[in-house]
Structure formats: structure tokens, C-alpha cells
Amino acid sequence: MNNRISTGMMFNQSVSLMLAKQAKLNHLENQIATGSKIVSAKDDPVSAGAAVGLDRVVAGLEQLGKNANNVQNRLGMQENALAQVNDLMSRAVELSIQANSPVPKSSDLKAIVSELKTIQQSLLSLANSKDGSGRYLFGGNNDADAPFLLTGGSVSYTGDQSQRQVEVAPGQLVSDALPGSDIFMRIRTGDGTVDASASAGNTGSGLLTSVSRDGTGAWAGGSLTVHFTDAGEGAYEVLDAGGAVVGTGTHAAGEDIVVAGVRLRIEGKPAAGDAFNVGDAETRDIFSTLDKLVSALETDPSTDSDRAALQNTLQSSIRDITRASENMIDARAKGGAQLAAIDSAASARESTAVTVKSTLSTMRDLDYADAIGQYKLESAALQAAQTIFSQMQSMSLFNMIR
């Protein structure tokens, strides 16, 4: 096969060479301008595909960072709200102790009642706290509406019992704010396991000041009644739920009564027939506890037995409010643990992002020294091609046959 050599062929070859060099220069200019050696997928299909996957990883880490910021904000607001609640609980205990003084004045009691009612209102407001986006902190997943409602003088919880789990690092979840039912509603009375109270019909001055387990682990639950049979000698008997006598003894004011794994301290002098009931600790919301305290303080005791009943109610309220304060502290500790987990997750995200971005840099980032060297080389080649083409324009095969 013979190839014809013509002027047109030489012109086409020269033009093709210049166009190729210009295309290469344009590509190098794009690389230098963007700082990336992969301008389009055809430059390195394998690396381009891997880089897209790594870009998704980086975007996912950024979204996890946003998740962490949102839940950190909510947990921080929960901490602030619970700190204020705890301060209110401490103040309620102080007021209860003041009201429990030997001879409280009527004016003092009225002032205490007024402040306790203000504390109730403040508690309800804090229980309905919102985060920065207008969502309620303590409503669980049902956080669009106020979780605590005051109806007919009593507070009810309308949120749910769930707690969100939010991913803040690959494979790492943290818990969002606690549902309000765990913080404000389901609070154990007494010491959290066992509780006791004075019977409503007591006529003596017996005052139940404390109740707890005795540390032996003998408390097995159920109900007991400490029934005083002789006021003079302080004799008592202990009855089980069926009314059977399971123990007897004598009591002196200020001494502990230890029975079936429970320790009771009773001050004053119970009358014959007075009784103190022991049972498993129940759950009560903090709003009801304060209602009970306010209602007791609004009475006007006129007899020794009435005053003893008021003091027993105050002692019971102090125990329950103290228990509620402990519950707030536990809730704050749980929130603090989640905040610490968020800080740990931030370190994990950062180290992962550094690794991924380093890999992306290896795939994409341009070696400027090498690219500039190639650019100069291609520029010289283009100039040479343009010079040859210019010289070819003055040449013709007809010149050879003249």
C-alpha cells in the first residue's frame, strides 16, 4: 500500500500536533488552577471513583458533627434546667425545716406557703423548658407540645417515655434529654426502697423522723405496722399484712426501732393505739409532694395530736423532697455522661476525618513542581510545532519540480 505525501497531509499533521499540545496545556492549566490532578473522571477513573466514596464519608462525618452539636445543645439546656430545679428543691427543704420549728408563727407559715406555691409554678415552667429550636426538652419523642399540664390543680404528664438515641460518630450513639416522667413524675418515696408514715388517727406526740433499711438486706418487701400498746412503757408490737404479731419490744424517745430489715426513728411519745405503717416505697411526682406539703401548712392545728400530724407530714415531705433532689442529681449525672461521650465522639470524628482527607489529598492533590515542569515542556513543544507549521506554510512540492 502506497501512502501519498501531499501538502494537505503535512498541514493536517501539523495542525493536529498543535491542537494536541494546546489540549494538553489547557488540561495542565486546569490542574494548576484547581490544585487537583483529577479534573475529570477520565484522568484516573479508579481514583475518581474512590474519591467520590471518600467525599461521602467526609460529608457523613460533617452531618454527625451537626447531630452532636444539636444534642449537646439540648443536654446543656437540660443541665441548666435541672440545676435550677435542684436549687428550688433545696429551698423547699429549707422552708419545710423552718415550718417544722417548735412554735411557728402563723404569719411565717403564710409566707412559707406563698413561697412554696411560687416554687411550684417555677418547677412547672422549668419542666416545660424548650431548646433553641422551640422543641420541649422533657417530652421524650413527643416534644412538639408542652409535656406537663396543670389541670384541676394537679399536674399531668402528656409526653412519652422514650429517649432519642443520636449517632454522633461512626457507630457511636448518645442519649438525648431524659423524658420528664423519669425526672419529675416517677420519684421513689422514703429511701427509694422502703417508706413509712404515721397513721392518720394517732393521738400521741410520736414523730417519725427517719426510715431506712438497716443494711442487713433482710427487708423483703411487703407491709408492716408498728402498733403501740402501752404509752407509759413504750411497749409496741409489730404486725404483718395479715395482722399477725411478728415482733414486740419497748421504745424510748429517740431510739431506733429495727424490725425485718427496716430502721425507724420515732421521737416524742406515741399514745396507746398509735401506729406507724411500713411498706414498699411508692412513686410520687414532685408536684404532688409539694401540694401535700402546702395543704398541710394551710391547716391550723389546735391540739397536740394535730400538731404531731402536721410535723409527721412535714418530715415525710422533707424525705420525699430530698429524694427528689437526689433524683435530679442522678439525672444531671446521666446528662453529664452523655456530654462526655459527645466530647469523645468529637475526637473520634476528627481523627477519622484527618485520615480520610489525607487519603483524598494523596489521590487528588496536584504536585505543583511536576505539573509546572510539564507545563513548560508542553509550552516549548507547542512553540516548536507552531514554528514548524509557520515554516511549512512557505513550502510547496511544486517548488521541488521547478
Q: Care to describe what's here?
A:
52% of the residues lie in helices and 17% in strands. It has 402 residues and is an alpha+beta fold. It has two domains: 44-189 and 284-394, f41 fragment of flagellin, N-terminal domain; 194-281. The strands form five sheets. The chain has a five-stranded antiparallel beta sheet. A three-stranded antiparallel beta sheet has the order 7-12-11. A two-stranded antiparallel sheet has the order 1-2. The model has no long low-confidence stretch (mean pLDDT 82).
CATH superfamily of the largest domain: f41 fragment of flagellin, N-terminal domain
Radius of gyration using CA atoms only = 41 Å
How many strands?
14
* Mean residue pLDDT: 82
The CATH class of the largest domain: Mainly Alpha
Q: Outline the biggest β-sheet.
A: 5 strands, antiparallel
How are strands sequenced across the largest beta sheet?
6-13-8-9-10
Structural class: alpha+beta
List segments where confidence is low: pLDDT < 50 over at least 5 consecutive residues: none
Total helical segments:
7
Oligomer description = single chain
CATH topology of the largest domain: f41 fragment of flagellin, N-terminal domain
How much helicity do the residues have? Answer: 40-55%
* Percent of sequence in beta strands: 15-25%
Pfam family, one: Flagellin_N
Domain Flagellin N-terminal: 5-142
Keywords: Bacterial flagellum, Cell projection, Cilium, Flagellum, Secreted
InterPro entries: Flagell_FlgL (IPR013384), Flagellin (IPR001492), Flagellin_N (IPR001029)
